[in-house]
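Key result, reporting period 2: structure in, sequence out.
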């Protein structure tokens, strides 16, 4: 249960709780199109067609925390571009502050524990002409199930909160903790201090470190040196020039030290 003494997080104006859905991102999109406000949160017990980045399937059994948040950000383009990284940071803070876990981030927004993925984030947008109409932030946290319930090869690269803590967690408390951290980060962006969040995220990503990435169909190898102002990953390649990888078309294949 959430702490009744704590006011609800600003990014939880409406909470829609569902049993089995195709994808919480789809439900949130329908609500956005029907005029529901920023801070509408859709949480489901199970997803039958959960999806991840690049159209990959996202396994969403019962016991996980699967939810989507509707945002209508009144932010400049740079701060909007920072949101995917910032969402990962908010989840990392919640897992550390509410459960005492030691977590890392893998750009742009995977949350890892001891190198294994515990949370994935899918950001989807909708435009009216050139204008951003809304964003859906879909967050999936492997919580109260064992990673070996997932099919291979996902199982071996994933972990869960149950596996890390040796017990189940209160999903409601975790949801509200993430929404509080996300609201705080959102406030930081709105107050023009988004760079602080990027520096914190770089720390959790362990940058600089060596990386192999796939960006727009090209494989690049080099030293990931930091994040650009818009949250892109800056990679200094072997020949010394700096490439900028953007979150919607790039993924890290391998990380070194
Ligand atoms: C990824 O790592 O590729 C992103 C995974 C995002 C999964 C979440 S679960 C809630 C929301 N609904 C979905 O269909 N996807 C996101």
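The corresponding designed sequence is given below.
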């Amino acid at each position: 249960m959430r702490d009744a003494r704590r006011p609800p997080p600003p990014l939880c104006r409406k909470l829609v709780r569902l049993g089995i859905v195709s994808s919480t991102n789809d439900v949130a999109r329908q609500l956005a199109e029907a005029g529901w406000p920023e801070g509408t949160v859709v949480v489901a017990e199970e997803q039958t067609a959960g999806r991840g980045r690049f159209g990959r399937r996202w396994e969403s059994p019962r016991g996980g925390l699967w939810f989507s948040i509707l945002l209508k950000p009144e932010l400049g383009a740079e701060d909007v571009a920072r949101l995917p990284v910032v969402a990962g940071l908010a989840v990392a803070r919640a897992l550390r502050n509410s459960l005492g876990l030691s977590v890392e981030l893998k750009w742009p927004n995977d949350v890892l524990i001891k190198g294994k993925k515990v949370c994935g984030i899918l950001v989807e947008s909708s435009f009216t002409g050139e204008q951003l109409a809304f964003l859906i932030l879909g967050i999936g946290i492997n919580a109260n199930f064992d990673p070996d319930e997932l099919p291979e090869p996902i199982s071996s690269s994933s972990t869960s909160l149950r596996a890390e803590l040796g017990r189940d967690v209160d999903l409601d408390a975790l949801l509200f903790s993430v929404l509080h951290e996300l609201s705080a980060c959102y406030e930081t962006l709105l107050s023009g201090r988004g760079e602080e969040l990027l520096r914190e995220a770089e720390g959790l990503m362990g940058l600089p470190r060596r990386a192999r990435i796939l960006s727009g169909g090209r494989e690049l190898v080099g030293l990931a040196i930091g994040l650009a102002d818009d949250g892109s990953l800056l990679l200094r390649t072997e020949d010394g020039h700096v490439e900028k990888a953007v979150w919607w078309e790039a993924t890290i294949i391998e990380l070194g030290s």
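The longest strand covers residues 116-128. Residues 14-204 form a domain with the BirA Bifunctional Protein; domain 2 fold (CATH 3.30.930.10). This case is discussed further under Risks and Mitigation.
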